[in-house]
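Repro:
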Amino acid sequence: MATNRYNPESYTHPGAVLREKLEEIGMGKKEFALRTGKPEKTIHDILNQESSITPDMAVQFENVLKIPAKFWLNYQTNYNEAKARIEKNVILNENLNWHLNFPYNDMANRGWVPKTRVALEKVENLLQYFGFSHPKAWERYYFECELKSSFRISLKHIKEPYAVSAWLRHGEIEAEKIEIQEYNERVFKEELISIKSLVVSQPNDSFQQLRTFCAEAGVKIIYTPCLPKAPISGCTRWINDFPVIQLSGRYKKNDIFWFTFFHEAGHVLSHEKKEVFIEGFVENEIKEKEADEFASNILLSQKQENEIVNALPLNDDSLVNFAQKFNTHPAIIIGRLQHLYHRFTFGNDYRVDINFQ
């Protein structure tokens, strides 16, 4: 991701070239100014590398010196770019320790940024990863929330904002690669019924099927493993008019994964497009509770939970019978009971890891 390094000494200001040419043909700056129709001060500033050659000047120079305008413009462009890169390197060097805020090595091991030990390259790679030109721009986006039209959450008061932002950014990058039809709320609600069948049957490719069902409704599903110091289970936001559900598989167990997905689906269906919901970083407790209730009602309603609790203790037969009766999976029941009773250990064999490959 790092750009090519420019050697500024290899790009001379075109004024220096012009000075050499005028000396070669024995023409003074006053005569040259007269012949080109430009003020003498303008020519003076160019010769002293204090001003740039414009397209209009380049054309006039072509008439007088018989050197194509493109030559002067290319020279000026190369010089301007080299100068800009010098200024950029100054900025990078002034922020040389910025990369220490991020879990750079973990990001590099995942292929998100290039591996390097050079601090300057790390800073530049991070800026390219986030799509910013300066660390201050990162702060304005993630801390000050200046782009309110598309990002309504501030990470300023989150414990590990840099790691969280890196995780979120990877979701954005992956979402851009997915091309699907436009979002349809009615279809998404219908697809949730099919997705509930995945919960019940637990096929080995359940995650892949989940992505397919959601894509048919115009919902993008992204899998992004957790980064150290960013213990996020899921996130919901809208990117370019598409709802994006980013899942980490933090605990990998099927009951937690499915609850997380339906929780995020609740945000898509119930809450505003401009908001960003990051599970574990609660800004709006009411809306998080609404999403919890949405997920609970789909997987195992309060009434169904009460019936199971009243039948405790369970055995394998009664557990399976309840799962069949309520059209859910035994792991969902076990997960709910373990949430209610932290010492509840029966049925752990039903809680298995989700395959994200």
